[in-house]
Every structure is written in C-alpha cells, then in structure tokens.
Amino acid sequence: MTAQSKKNAARVRRTRLKIKKVANGRPRLSVYRSSKNISAQIIDDARGHTVAWASSLDKSMREELEKISTSDAAAEVGKALAERAIKAGVKDVVFDRGGYMYQGRVKTLAEAAREAGLKF
Question: Would residue 22 count as lying in a domain?
C-alpha cells in the first residue's frame, strides 16, 4: 500500500467513525465518485441493507446524462436518489462523503438531494 493510499484509507475511516457516532440510527448516504461518474446509496447500517441507490451509470439515466456536464449529472443523481429514498420511506439520513472533500460534484449531489426532500 502506498503512502497516499494509506492516507486516503485513514481519512475514510476517520470520517466513517464520526458519522457512526452522530447517526443515532439514521441511514447513511454514501457517495462514490470517479473521474467521469458519480454514484450514491443510502445504507441502513443496523441491518446492513441498501435502501436506495442512484448512479450516473444507471440505464434509465445514462442516455440523458451523457449530454450534460459531470456537475449537472451529480445533481440529477442526487434528485433521483432522494426520490427513491422517500419512496422507500427514508427522509432523514447522515451524509457520508467517503473521504472526498465537500466541494464540486459531492456538494452538488448533496444540495440536490436536500432540495428534493432529504434531511441531513
């Protein structure tokens, strides 16, 4: 393991530990981003179950997201995730940025999910 990957893993561990302390039984909204795509899922850690998920690679969203910027795609993913979560009965979540800085696409996804009805 390289020195940089050790730092990244430590940052993710530190973030998750803080989130679990303040969660109070709420599900966790976990974000993953790559250079071209972004995905998010709402995880119920008590049961180890994924409640809802959305991704820019989802077949239903892929065609329309290919034509827009990655930041706009993150906003669409956030809206879709919030709609699916509310449909599944989840409104309050804890945001897990996964070691990424809260800026750019991660921030856009979070703000879009908030606007669509999720509380965190």
Answer: yes
Q: What share of the chain is helix, strand, coil (3-state, %, to 5)?
A: 50, 20, 30
Could you list the residue range(s) of the whole structural domain that residue 88 is in? Answer: 3-115
Inter-residue contact 58 to 96 (CB < 8 Å): no
Contact of 93 with 42, CB cutoff 8 Å: yes
Residue-wise burial string across 40-79, b where 16 or more C-beta atoms lie within 10 A, e elsewhere? bbbbbbeeeeebbbbbbeeeebeeebeeeebeebbbbbbb
Q: What is the pLDDT of residues 44-61, one digit of tens each?
A: 988 999 999 999 999 988
Tokens of 24: 């109070």
pTM value is: 0.89
Please, what is the Cα angle at 42 between 104 and 39, to 5 degrees? Answer: 40
CA distance 50 to 57: 17
* Domains contained in the chain, number: 1
